[in-house]
Amino acid sequence: MLGLKSGVYAMPTVVDSVKKAQDAHSAALLAKAFEVCKQRLVKAETLVLEGDPKEVICQAVEQVNADLLVVGSRGLGKIKRAFLGSVSDYCAHHAKCPVLIVKPHK
């Protein structure tokens, strides 16, 4: 007997709707962060990129010649981090500039 594969497929309109919502959320979040930096006289640049976060972040650091990369840490435990990987850990070891890792507030 042949094995059956199942999958979930979204209609293009649903995919487009989700993409637009993600884009709007990203734009609002970056605008707020940019304004905070501006108020504190911190030169900042914002980008919205797609792909594997750890790879894309490190590539962007090189492209914009960043002086400092600030990344958040979700505070995963050792076991979860081993399975899921850590974007902040990857960036700390591969980014071409100093990296500041901000841990979550307790």
Q: What is the beta-strand fraction?
A: 5-15%
Strand elements, count: 2
Q: What is the radius of gyration computed over CA atoms, rounded to a whole number of angstroms?
A: 18 Å
- Uncertain parts: none
Output the helix-strand order: HHEHHE
Instruction: State the fourth-level CATH superfamily of the largest domain.
Output: HUPs
Oligomer: single chain
Q: Characterize the largest beta sheet: strand count, sense, and whether it forms a barrel.
A: 2 strands, parallel
Helix count from the secondary structure assignment: 4
CATH topology of the largest domain: Rossmann fold
Q: What is the CATH C-level name of the largest domain? A: Alpha Beta
**Class derived from helix and strand content:** mainly alpha
Question: Number of domains in the coordinates?
Answer: 2
What percent of residues adopt helix (DSSP H or I)?
Answer: 40-55%
Distance between the termini: 53 Å
Q: Report mean pLDDT, rounded to a whole number.
A: 85
In the CATH hierarchy, the architecture of the largest domain is 3-Layer(aba) Sandwich
Strand order of the largest sheet: 1-2
Dominant shape = globular
